[in-house]
Amino acid sequence: MNSSNNAWLKEHNTVHLMHPMQDPKSLKDNLPVIIESGEGVHITDVDGRRFLDLQGGLWCVNVGYGRKEIVDAVSEQMQKLAYYSLFPGSTNPAAIALSQKLIEITAPEGMVKVSFGLGGSDAVESALKIARQYWKLEGQSDKYKFISLYNGYHGLNFGGMSACGGVAWRSSYEPLMPGFIQVEGPHLYRNPFTQDPEELVEICAQLMERQIEIQGAHTIAAIIAEPIQGAGGVIVPPASYWPRLRQIADKYNILLIADEVITGLGRSGSLFGARGWGVKPDIMCLAKGISSGYVPLSATLINQRVASAWERDAGFTSVYMHGYTYSGHPVSCAAGLAAIDIVLRENLAENAAVVGEYFRERLLELKGKHRAIGDVRGKGLMIAIELVKDRQTKEPFGPDEAYPLAISEGCVNSGVMLRTIVNKLIISPPLTFTKDNVDEVIEVLDRTFIANPW
Ligand SMILES: Cc1ncc(COP(=O)(O)O)c(C=O)c1O
User: Fold this and answer.
1) How far is the CA of 125 from the centre of ligand 1 (A)?
2) What CA–CA distance (Å, rounded) separates 426 from 412?
3) Which of the residues 49, 264, 330, 447 has an alpha carbon 20 to 30 A from that of 226?
């Protein structure tokens, strides 16, 4: 292999490499950008083209690229101890330290224990298994079902995928796990009910309650949802929705799982998405921003109510029969500690709130100029621009239509790395983004829409 030979890389990208969420055939004609290096909010490809990274890797590089603190922490940890496990009989200092740190920063949510994994799908899987085991330990093993939302994304392992609320993520792998039910969540731009946010919250809350009653509350383990839906198209619920979810969970004695894989560690403009809604979940799933994508890492956190089920002596059933070889990997945990330290020290949640607000204002100016922009929505530095064929009917561009790709490709060719999800342009840059970076993006988007009129 000569990986420094660009032609070789381009030729071989698809020979043996399966890319997530893509038809392998399509990659032959559409060569993806081969990213080679990163610095701050910029990335560079193998041809030396430099881009502003509007994707933040994949919603994850919260602190930006090339942060020496993380590199040093990883290097020191590797030199000292490359690996030791958390399985019976051993542990390691980095995992202990990171668990303490996570509990410290989630004190307002009342979290008390941490289970580590390597990515968002692990974090969700752990949450689902903890919820089921919790109810067994409580002597209510009939409570095994999960309710999630349409458009929700919870990773692609079988448990999380079964909670996903979109056909594209599910259909090729059915049958999925039994006991997973989806209900309508409040999507203000696209719903068949109303354009009034409060009325919509009430309707969705009622739909949730009806589903719980039809299933029987005695069969429901947990509600799982994202504080802001990400992969579903950056769907921001009205502020009263999450407090209503908490009320419903309490009313029916159901656990509430916040899937904070994207929203956690600052992206939504508060340190955690549920905190931004003033809600304390029972279980929190963290990944992506926890290590800023530098190494694979995730964590599932539980509050005292959930943890207390394991405090009683229930014999073998209270063994937490879950975890991976790399749960609490010392190198990942060292990176996590350094990444979290930067997020806190540089107050990146606050920067995401301020710069995100400015970004949306500027995007709304573009909406005034370009007809294809149907909606601009987001919170903090997670934003979507939804493209439509007609603003009145809101008819979206379909998955096979070229227009959204023409826009994102136009941006990429002008130095802005931008990803589309069907008809949505997704904006999730590093949280170190500045207003000047935003102005640069706006200029590129404006020029691209002008060059591609609809
Ligand atoms: C909310 C949410 N949960 C879970 C996941 C799965 O994470 P991973 O791809 O790291 O397994 C994602 C990934 O984007 C996500 O956005």
Assistant:
1) 11
2) 13
3) 330
* pLDDT tens-digit map of 357-394: 999 999 999 999 999 999 999 999 999 999 999 999 99
* Residues 6+ positions from 85 with CB-CB distance below 8 Å: 92, 325, 327, 328
For residue 426, is it within any domain?
yes
- pLDDT band, very low/low/confident/very high, at 314 (cuts 50, 70, 90): confident
Assigned domain for 24 exists: no
- Each residue's pLDDT tens digit, 64-114: 999 999 999 999 999 999 999 999 999 999 999 999 999 999 999 999 999
- H or E stretch including 202? helix 197-215
pLDDT mean over 185-198: 98
Closest CA to 276 of 289, 258, 256: 258
Q: Is the CB–ligand 1 distance for residue 231 below 6 Å? A: yes
Which tokens is 222 given? 């947990």
Q: What is the pTM of this model?
A: 0.98
**Integer Cα distance of 76 and 42 in angstroms:** 26
Give the relative orientation of helices 348-369 and 435-451 as an angle to the nearest 10 degrees. Answer: 30
Q: Are 245 and 227 in contact (CB under 8 A)?
A: no
> Which of these, 226, 237, 238, lies nearest to 262 by C-alpha position?
226
> What's the angle, vertex CA 299, arms to CA 293 and CA 302, rounded to 5?
155
Q: Is 119 near ligand 1, meaning CB less than 6 Å away?
A: yes
Q: Quick: pLDDT tens for 254-289.
A: 999 999 999 999 999 999 999 999 999 999 999 999
CATH number at residue 352: 3.90.1150.10
Asked if 127 and 141 touch (Cβ cutoff 8 Å), the reply is no
Q: Which of 153, 257, 298 to mutate to test the pocket of ligand 1 (most atoms within 8 A of CB)?
A: 153
Domain carrying residue 432: 33-63+347-451
Report the nearest atom of ligand 1 relative to the CA of 298.
10
| The predicted structure's pLDDT at residue 1 | 46
Together in a domain, 299 and 352: no
| Number of separate domains in the chain | 2
The answer to whether residues 303 and 109 touch, using CB atoms and an 8 Å cutoff, is yes
> What's the gap in Å between 154 CA and the centre of ligand 1?
6
Same domain, 263 and 356: no
Q: How many Å lie between the centroid of ligand 1 and the Cα of residue 287?
A: 8
